[in-house]
Amino acid sequence: MTRIPFDLMKSTIKQAFLNAGMPEAKADICAQIHTESSRDGVYSHGLNRVERFVDYIGKGWVDVHAEPSLENSLSNIEIYNGNLGPGILNALFAMNRATEIAAKHGLGMVSLNNTTHWMRGGAYGWQAAGKGFAAICWTNTESCMPVWGGKSEAIGNNPFIMAVPRKEGHVVLDMAMSQYSYGKLQVTRLKDQKLPYPGGFDQEGNLTDNPGEIELTRRILPMGYWKGSGFAVMLDLFSALLSGGLTTAKIDKAGLGSCGSCCQVFIAIDPLRFNSGEFVEQAIADTIAQIKLSEMAEGVNEIYYPGEQSLKTRAENLKSGIPVNDGVWAKVMELATIG
Amino acid sequence: MTRIPFDLMKSTIKQAFLNAGMPEAKADICAQIHTESSRDGVYSHGLNRVERFVDYIGKGWVDVHAEPSLENSLSNIEIYNGNLGPGILNALFAMNRATEIAAKHGLGMVSLNNTTHWMRGGAYGWQAAGKGFAAICWTNTESCMPVWGGKSEAIGNNPFIMAVPRKEGHVVLDMAMSQYSYGKLQVTRLKDQKLPYPGGFDQEGNLTDNPGEIELTRRILPMGYWKGSGFAVMLDLFSALLSGGLTTAKIDKAGLGSCGSCCQVFIAIDPLRFNSGEFVEQAIADTIAQIKLSEMAEGVNEIYYPGEQSLKTRAENLKSGIPVNDGVWAKVMELATIG
To answer: Which of B78, B114, B151, B173 to mutate to test the interface with A (most CBs of A within 10 A)?
Structure first.
């Protein structure tokens, strides 16, 4: 397996973005986030997503020069138009603004309409936690999953993130509403393996753990069946209502690619405005201890708190280099050398 | 099947609560909410929960005279001590206060520490939506589910609710973090049926759809496997950090029964402070239309938006009476006649 050092990956991605017309400072930040995503094991939205992002710039679906503009503010809430700027930059801006407001008011909420794909949603949870804030954020997407009871794609997989800051490692949940991503289906199929649990429906309408059959029907399973389906619908509605942006149904019609003109909500909370540092540390420590001291299930060697596996992967990839698919890496190097 | 008219059920429950020592106005409200839960099909936390609630009063785990007291306020946030008062009354108070704050600031957040079981969490979503507010609320609970990778009960099933107001019927998601409740396992076992999908682990550590085997191991499955497990952990942490209350780990040690001294968060949003009524209606209508127009899966006759099935059950139960288990109804009538 080829492994690439962090700095080389970042500078290569940055050059690809510069070649696509991004201003230097923006290219640097976007390359940093894409590389961090791969570093933490979220390859699908790290290096693997660079080519598509560059393609979107070329199509005019992402405006590399656009900046978010304030549309409305209300108490500790601000609403911005993302102006189809790079989703990563808009989201970093929005979460940062939410933490600034939270520092003043305890809680800050910033919503974005008309933004573009934020890549790895967890990035903004880690961002807030890194500044000492707890955070909740989510995005809507185009239709990519059937609603519960349906066969055709009708709802988004609307990633949802919650983060709590902690000295010894932040606690970060980053989950989409589908049980598995299409990226996971593809990787599993290419290895000729089955999914650990059923991940969608085959052509007869039966649940299956065969990833190739699900790729054919495009009937991926919402996590928790009807529960993830309902949650996806609510996240979509809240995204639009809090930002004045497009629902999934309208994103489908916008014709701006995956997440083109989507909307997002960022909530930051300063836990120290609510309780003492001691209380916060103890509550988190008690919870992690209770998880870790569980009697382990058959075949399990360690129980992880949310985000812990990302930290393990991060340490491993920083030490040994970030694993890449050779074809993907060659393509990004090509994008970095043209121009 | 015995069916009881709404008014008779409510007055019977109310008398049971009066006999248990509740003041009249409080008994009336609690009886209303328990009856509404059964009316909407949430039997487990409606009539079926009356006996246990009365038992908790007798044990001193619920103080029928206690009122929530303000501990802290901060911008559009208020934190109350629930003083172990009836969970329903504390939660109604908190959500109502959140809507009052939202009317002024767009968003209001009220958290409660040291409260007791709120029964059906959806009640507070319907409450907010009934006043024209969107809402998000959740509670933590005692340990009742293994964390992903564990066998022993370590995390709560922490119900999570999202609601959006809509003239033709509010959109309300009310979900616990377990795929099925213990109530559902029991009902399914008593009918000698299998669960529709695996709901937990058997004694060999295999997933099973046999409810009795799961009741034996007490290894119920988090919705979406690791996803619901992680979400439950985060909801617990946010409950405690936003309210200054007990985490699941500490509720386990409090010895005050199910949800004794738990904590809860109530967020209300006035959608009309964010967008025009027309925008809000259109966004919801588009989303529901997109769901409803899905190609239907095999054997499905109708696709529902979140909350729609509750409305159907409500209409049916108001017309024909609320179905009851004869033993449960006899017990509540007994509680209503003693005294």
So the answer is: B173
Q: What is the mean pLDDT of residues B48-58?
A: 97
Q: What's at A184, amino acid-wise?
A: K
| Catalytic center residues of B | 45
Please identify among residues 301-330 of chain A the ones whose CB lies closer than 8 Å to any CB of chain B.
302-306
**Cβ neighbours of A296 in B, within 8 Å:** 149-151
In this structure, the number of other CB atoms found within 10 A of the CB of residue B44 comes to: 18
A7-27: buried (b, 16+ CB within 10 Å) or exposed (e) per residue? eebbebbbbbbbbbebeeebb
Structural domain tally of chain B? 4
Q: Look up residue A221 and give its DSSP letter.
A: P
pLDDT digits (tens, 9 = 90+) for A146-203: 999 999 999 999 999 999 999 999 999 999 999 999 989 998 998 999 999 999 999 9
pLDDT of residue A297 exceeding 70, the answer is yes
What ipTM, to 2 d.p.?
A: 0.98
pTM of the predicted protein model: 0.98
Contact A294 B249 (CB under 8 A): no
Indicate if B205 and B267 belong to the same structural domain: no
pLDDT in tens, A110-154: 999 999 999 999 999 999 999 999 999 999 999 999 999 999 999
Q: What distances in angstroms separate CA A5 from CA A11, A78, A123, A150, B170, one per listed residue?
A: 10, 39, 20, 44, 52
> Which residues form the domain of A290?
277-306
Instruction: Classify B147 as helix, strand or coil.
Output: coil
Residue pLDDT, tens place only, B93-112: 999 999 999 999 999 999 99
- Around Cβ B39, how many Cβ atoms within 10 Å? 23
Whether A109 is in a domain gets the answer yes
Task: For chains A and B, count residue pairs whose Cβ atoms are closer than 8 Å.
Answer: 251
B178, closest residue in chain A (CA to CA): A224
Average pLDDT over residues A50-79: 97
Of B249, B293, B306, the CB nearest to A290: B249
Are A316 and A297 part of one and the same domain?
Answer: no
Contact criterion met (CB < 8 Å) for A150 and B241:
no
The mean pLDDT value for B10-26 works out to 98
